[in-house]
Amino acid sequence: MSTTSQKKSSNQHAEAKPLNSAPTSEAPVVDSRPNYSVFTTWEKRSIVLGAAAAAFFSPLTAQIYLPALNLLTIEFNISEAQANLTVTTYMIFQGIIPMFIGSFADSTGRRPAYMICFVIYLAANIGCALAPSYVALLILRMLQSAGSSTTVALCQAVVADIITSAERGQYVGLVTVPVILAPALGPVIGGLLSQFLGWRWIFWFLTILAGSVFVVYALFMPETCRNIVGDGSIHPHPFYRTFWQLTKDVYHKRKIKSNGVKPDWQQTTSQAPEKRKFKMQRLNPLRSLTILFEIEMFLLLMYSSLIFAGFYAIATSMPSQFADLYGFDELQVGLMYLPLGGGSVIAAVIMGKLVNWNYRRHCKKLGIPFERTKEQDLSEFPIEKARLEIGIPLLLFSAVVLLAWGWAMQYRAHLAVPCVLLFLMGIGLIGFSNTTNTLIVDVNPGNAGAATASNNLTRCLIGAAASALIDPMIKGIGSGWAFFIIGMLQLIGAPVLWLIMKNGIKWRKDKEKRKQARRQNKENNTLVT
């Protein structure tokens, strides 16, 4: 595999030139490692944007539905708590399902996983649009979540497939833009559709939009999984190839018959392994659970999920709070999500560049050559510091904004106050989320899909608890104290990030030793049998 050869090469390079070594008069050593990916910059951006477009549906489906919650209580004669349960169950499945499909995508490929997700999602949307009862809607929302939720994990995995650690911060910011626009635009679209066409048209709209993206993906998005195509140069089984690639294959075969010229892929990948066969792998959620219980990942995932719980609490409570306190209808409630999206977009654009800048700063500090197109050996590199030094100030900022939000709603502040607070919350929360998402991919090379699925699991389960509890908390102790509790939990837990920065390298080395020991035991058992 090309990944293994890169690691060996980078280890040899590190031994030849220690960190912080004094400069010598010798000629600089030329880095002969191959590029991490054969895709051009334009191709990488197109692939990442395509993956982000698919990931758009997971948060969009969750948020576009919120302005219609009040209408559901009327149509199905249910309580607010029962209506919120359709959000809670969606989030539970949003956390569980990626554990199965994420590990499947790491071994079997990204395209098969995407195809499964889109088919399930389209069928569920049609069912939701025709749902005759509350129970039917509740069940179909679970199925809808099963289809859309894994696209976020797959998007992060695609970034890990083709983008190096040196560039990853900016690309993670790039994929975040469509994902964070969804929570901002979703309620506006949902409010318009539910107010003028009825809440069922929300699901017809999602069906049409997802169907269009599915067609484009099936036609043009290539397979990127490194277990299938390596750095992108390996010619995979036709099952993995797009309609565009298959059309080129037919053209090349005709070219061979006419003048005996080799097809382009054979000319450019003569040194690559032979064509990979398609092999369907079993769904294995244990890989994501194993990652979850590694100490570094456990602390990082649990704490980042606690931060996101504040977002879920705000997003879920906004429809009822703005309706009760300000007398807003569905469309007006939807418009109130726009400041949150505006702050999130600014954070995504700026923080990606800051994360990359801090990575370069640490490379310069340690005397490590900075290479954009070649993957860096991170075994001795303080990647936790490079990421979290940018994220921690944003985390503290968002926690303080969360405290202010609760009391602003408690005392029914002027409408400008919640608008400003939502904008600031978007900057702090999404900025911190970008740094943690990047770090999760960095410390799990080769398992980006399963690692991001673990992230989804913790975020969605804790977020589901927050969305289910926030309404009773507000009614019981008021908005001020409800959000004060959440904000203080975030501030009290902040030292966990210091532990991660201090012990990250040691924990990663210990994990690698355990992995090598398991591999050795497996080889010994094979020899015995």
Automatic annotation (TrEMBL):
GO terms for molecular function: transmembrane transporter activity. Residues 47-505 form the Major facilitator superfamily (MFS) profile domain. The keyword Cytoplasm does not apply. One of its GO terms (cellular component) is plasma membrane. Residues 1-13 have a biased composition (Polar residues). It is a multi-pass membrane protein. Keywords: Membrane, Transmembrane, Transmembrane helix, Transport. It comes from the Eukaryota. The chain crosses the membrane at residues 47-69, 81-101, 113-140, 146-164, 171-189, 201-220, 289-315, 335-355, 390-409, 415-435, 456-474, 480-501. It is found in: Membrane. Residues 1-29 are annotated as: Disordered. The keyword Transmembrane helix applies. This is Major facilitator superfamily transporter.
